[in-house]
Amino acid sequence: MTAWNKRGFYREMIAIAIPVAIQNIITVGVSMADTVMLGSLGETPLSASALANQLFFIFTLVMFGTSGGTNVLAAQFWGKRDIASIKKVLGYTYRLVLAVAALMTVISALFPTQVLSLFTNEEPVIAEGARYLRIISASFFFFGLTTITSGLLRAVQNVRISMAASVVSVGLNIFLNWVLIFGKLGAPALGVVGAAVATTVSRAVEFAIVLTYTLVFEKQVRLRIRELIHLDKTISKPFFSNCIPVMCNELLWSAGASLLTVVMGHMGQEMVSANSIYTVISQFSSVMVQGLSSAAAVLIGKTIGAGEYDQIDFKVATLQKLGAVMGILAGCIVFFSRPLMMVIYNVGETTKLYVDQIMIVGAFLELFNALVFVNMVGILRGGGDAKFVLVNDILFLWTIAVPLGFLAGLVWHWPVPLVFFILKSDNLIKLVTSFIRIRQKKWIKNVTVSAGV
After folding, report:
1. Is residue 230 included in any domain, yes or no?
2. Distance between CA 16 and CA 383 in Å, rounded?
3. For residue 446, is it within any domain?
């Protein structure tokens, strides 16, 4: 691989990773604003919104999984400059997204109390969370379509509009949170309901921006709604063999992760509040890892689609080294931000103790989490090895983290930091298996070949 090509790879990686990271920082900023504002009202509103968002958490990961599977195909077709096949893939993807969004909307709008009862038995938390969940049920369609469309633009290396839409959405969300949660500018003080309204409106605006750009201004794919109506069966095999495993991967993994939240919910709202605070700072610390993984999936997929197999070893090694560096940085951010979390959140002493203990454990785990994310979500999925990622994600979560977490937290009543470590322990195993898989090189698959193109 020539030095010029290496420089080109670095430029492409930075061009994707940085905007995605900035977009994630913005998104995490909204989550932090939500938790700080609601936390100032007490632990019940904070816990209620955190648990109500578990259903949206599942939906989010399913959308990211669907988008990730689509992006692998789109990136490989983009490597061939086959725009027509990219549009065919999207025809299937949008239908799948609308079906899942409709299901989630019905569940959250009609059965919010039943959903919340799975996570906690504290009636005040359930009542507040149900009010929140009913309102944000309207945002599933907006978020789902925005995620898939932004993923398409990322796959063809167009990331700026998604970042710009996120900036507008976040600014609007924070402003509306301030107005509606606390009753500013003459508005009523709605508390949790105000946060839900703000979130729903901001997601609708973000969707409108991305959709308008894609249909009117985007020049590479030139997507048109009429082109998505007809389903081309020639693309069905690579779509279902690659996208469905990724979607199922995220669905089953997020369901397992929600069961871990069930453990925390039954350990008390202090544990729920502490975990929600840790989750925000963990997401913030890992934004560059997420950006790098997005870049890895696109660039590895594009490399395979273009048939440039001699470049793969260099690109994989570079991505893994950067993943390790970013994991160390993420761990440092989590560890050294502990005193700040005690200041900005208005929570009780027990919750503060849990936050401190959880963040110490979490700081240690960030390095492993970063490498697993780059290996699994970036390299292996980008290389078309979605089924291996599916098996690893589900196997270790459901056979180790979930059952041991239930026993440690609800039966044996072990200390909070040890329970938290067990709940997050599956990544330690996936780190080993993902490195072995990458070294074997069985993951390199041109998934566009089965489409006959």
Report:
1. yes
2. 17
3. no
**Residue 320 pLDDT greater than 70, yes or no:** yes
- Single out the residue of 336, 200, 254 nearest to residue 63, CA to CA: 254
Q: What is the pTM of this model?
A: 0.72
Q: Is residue 452 in some structural domain?
A: no
Cα(453)–Cα(433) distance, integer angstroms: 32
Q: Which domain holds residue 424?
A: 3-441
283 or 176, higher pLDDT: 176
Measured between alpha carbons, how far is 90 from 102 in angstroms, rounded to an integer?
A: 18
pLDDT tens-place string over residues 33-84? 777 787 777 778 878 887 777 788 778 778 877 777 777 777 778 777 787 7
User: Quick one: which of 154, 432, 414, 193 has its CA closest to 291?
Assistant: 154
Mean pLDDT of 281-308: 86
Output the pLDDT for position 32: 67
Residues near 341 by Cβ (< 8 Å), separated by ≥ 6?
A: 277, 281, 355, 359
Query: Most confidently modeled of 26-30, 286-290, 341-345?
Result: 286-290
351 vs 416: CA distance, rounded Å: 11
Residues in CB range of 49: below 8 A, 6 or more apart: 34, 35, 38, 128, 129, 132, 192, 195, 196
What is the DSSP secondary-structure string of 213-258? IIIII--SS---THHHHSPPGGGHHHHHHHHHHHHHHHHHHHHHHH
Residue 113: partners with Cβ closer than 8 Å, 6 or more residues away: 126, 127, 130
Q: Give CA–CA dist 81/155, Å, rounded.
A: 12
Q: Quick one: pLDDT band at residue 198, thresholds 50, 70, 90?
A: very high
Name the band, by pLDDT with cuts 50, 70 and 90, for residue 328: very high
In a domain, 67, yes or no: yes
Nearest to 443 by CA among 391, 389, 396, 371: 389
Total domain count, the chain: 1
